[in-house]
Amino acid sequence: MPIPPPPLSTARQFRAGQTPRAMAKLARMFQTFDATTTPDQGPPRLARLRTECARHDVAGFVIPRADAHQGEYVAPRDERLAWLTGFTGSAGFAVVLAEEAAVFVDGRYTVQVKAQVDSAAFTPVAFPQNRLAPWLAEHLPEGAVIGLDPWLHTRREVEALDKAGVATRMVPNLVDAIWEDQPPPPLGTAHAHPPEFAGKSSAEKRREIAQALAEAGQSAAVLTLPDSISWLLNIRGEDLPRIPCVQAFAILHASGKLTLFAAPEKLAGLEAHLGADVTARPPEAFEPALKTLTGPVRVDQGSAPHAVGLALEAEGIAIAWGDDPCILPKAAKTAAELQGMREAHLRDGAAMVEFLAWLDREAPKGALTEIAVVQQLEAFRRKTNALNDISFDTICGAGPHGAIVHYRVTEGTNRAIAPGELLLIDSGGQYLDGTTDITRTVIVGEPTDEHRACFTRVLQGMIAISRARWPKGLSGRDLDPLARAPLWMAGQDYDHGTGHGVGAYLSVHEGPQRIARISEVPLVPGMILSNEPGYYREGAFGIRIENLVVVEPAPALPGGDDREQLGFETLTHVPIDTRLVESAQLAPGEREWLNGYHAETLEKIGPRVSPEAQGWLTAATRAI
Questions:
Q1: Is the pLDDT of residue 271 over 80?
Q2: How do residues 535-556 score in pLDDT, each as one tens digit?
Q3: How far apart are CA 61 and CA 85, in angstroms?
Q4: Which residues contact 386 (CB under 8 A, 6 or more apart)?
Q5: Which end of the chain is less enclosed by CB atoms within 10 A, N or C?
Q6: What phi and psi, each to the nearest 5 degrees, are found at residue 387?
Q7: Per residue in 566-608, pLDDT tens?
Q8: Would you state the pLDDT for residue 30?
Q9: Are both 427 and 559 inside the same structural domain?
Q10: φ/ψ (deg, to 5) at 595
Q11: Are residue 217 and residue 92 in the same domain, yes or no?
């Protein structure tokens, strides 16, 4: 009997498409199309919440889309905003007072909120044009007190209310009190993240950050963000949809030792990986443990729950307010993480090319719907045998649905894709070696002159970011106007940031780096961002083109540079629909960039796709 070969390492299993997790997930689709909320759910729940407010002697209650970890993504148990109002966007909050209620949303959701919320019960309010503190100061009766759950708001948020003269009271969560069938807390299994992809051991990371704490005279740091803790410990989990994080709290001591607060069943089998310097305790031990610390203790007032600071202050423990110490190290990817992201994007790019070739064959027949497109795209990604999940629910909007920036198709909204319509597809995958996020807007049939003019302006903005070089020390707000300038010249713009940070097999939205008007974080080599300008005409169409880019030292210029400069390496290689490009509108340098990008895409992706898709790719990347 032959001796069986040794088992493959996790990384080698992944490259062979043989990881148990990937194989198990091949049996089911990730995305579903059920409508999870309806506008009519809001009014009766609103009435019950007002009764609860009166019972606790507060004039109202604030309901953020947040959990105790203050991350962007929440488990079903914490979807309080959606449960109460019907609004399912990834950002926003509601305020319920005795006589009025409001849902605050940013520019990405101004169309969506109108469809999901009963406007007779909840008034949509534009954010950040209108902020919570001034709104409450204007709408609260004199002497009234607003209720807050201290686990769902940060110190910074509470202080903003205090400065505006808004009286607050910390109360138990009043939505939880009326939500009878609230789901239980998530108990997803955690697993070790292979060192081949992390690039640094957890011990190295903890040692480096602990040393920085010690040098700053801080005894410990409180960590509440799931992606920070997952990154620091080189673990990944299944607590959150689409985001492979472990929901937990942690205290990292200046000695390098760490206490991890998570449900024991999540961590079964990870004892050896975590090591002797990591002590696991249940979540209910977190708050009592805070009260035993000696200060100064580092706490991030922008992400830690207000309850953390209250617990420390109740014991007289000194607090050193400062950023989560994992944020910047996590954002600047290791060489191994960057190489993994490059490979993930080539694999994902091949799946996208197979999909776009299929779409070009099938869409003109007039039988495709938005749901059918989403299902087929996921099927092509799954054929890689490496997909662990999609990185977010695919946005697939045809015609007027493309103008809904974060549109999620359901059985009730699904529509056929008609000739002459633009189709916007924003999607991504979670692979063990990287996270992808890509948007392509394509034409079904023949575009109009207006389609081509608007698309070309968006493309010019995307090219401007791709080609940018800038002096070291600048931030995303300094680059953001480059993407908008072509649209501004036509009196157009878009109401979202130009780019967000992206994690390495972590959150598809990762801070602190952004390309946006409000971003002041300097860009440094290794940071990965999206590059995604857009244009949206409500009721007509939407356009967005998105690649992921990584910050790198800029190539030297002839004659040398006066100062150190940075630029971008493009990670995404998928054709851009040249049928929508008005070539005469492009400057020579823009045309050169597009043709060079397409030549590189053909070279890198061509050998990875089927002969049929390769023929399509050759035509799609032809120089203009």
A1: yes
A2: 999 999 999 999 999 999 999 8
A3: 13
A4: 14, 15, 17, 22, 347, 431, 432
A5: N
A6: -75, 125
A7: 999 999 999 999 999 999 999 999 999 999 999 999 999 999 9
A8: 92
A9: yes
A10: -65, -40
A11: no
Position 568 in a domain: yes
The token duo for 216 is 């700053």
| Burial of 118 per CB tally in 10 Å (0-12, 13-18, 19+) | middle
Q: Which residues pair with 416 in a beta bridge?
A: 369
Instruction: Dump pLDDT digits (tens) for 155-214.
Output: 999 999 999 999 999 999 999 999 999 999 999 999 999 999 999 999 999 999 999 999
Q: What is the DSSP-derived secondary structure letter of residue 489?
A: T
Partnered with residue 221 across adjacent β-strands are 252, 298
Angstrom distance (rounded) from CA 376 to CA 446: 23
The 10s digit of each residue's pLDDT in 36-69 is 899 999 999 999 999 999 999 999 999 999 999 9
Angle, vertex CA 537, rays to CA 531 and CA 541, nearest 5: 80
Distance CA 178, CA 554 (A): 56
Residue 317: C-alpha distances to residues 34, 83, 222, 292, 310 (Å):
48, 37, 13, 9, 10
- What is the residue-wise DSSP string for 349-399? HHHHHHHHHHHHHHGGGT--BHHHHHHHHHHHHHTTS-EEEESS--EEEEG
Q: Which residue is it, tokens 């910074």?
A: 156
CATH number of the domain to which 74 belongs: 3.40.350.10
pLDDT band for position 296 (cuts 50, 70, 90): very high
- Vertex 32 angle, CA 31 and 38, to 5°: 130
Q: Are residues 104 and 169 in the same domain?
A: yes
User: Are residues 368 and 245 both part of a single domain?
Assistant: no
What spatial distance separates the first Cα and last Cα of the chain, rounded to whole Å? 61
Close Cβ partners of 480 (under 8 Å, ≥ 6 residues apart): 497, 498, 515, 516, 517, 519
| DSSP codes joined into one string, 108-129 | GGHHHHHHHS-TTT-EEEETTT
Tens of pLDDT, residues 485-511: 999 999 999 999 999 999 999 999 999
Same domain, 415 and 320: no
Dig out the tokens for 613 from the structure.
Answer: 């898709």
Task: Please give the structure tokens belonging to residue 43.
Answer: 């009014």
Task: Determine, yes or no, domain membership for 496.
Answer: yes
Counting the structural domains of the chain, the total is 3
Boundaries of domain holding 199: 191-329
- Taking the alpha carbons of 52, 58, 63, 69 in that order, is the dihedral positive or negative? negative
Cis check: omega of the bond before 588, within 30 degrees of 0: no
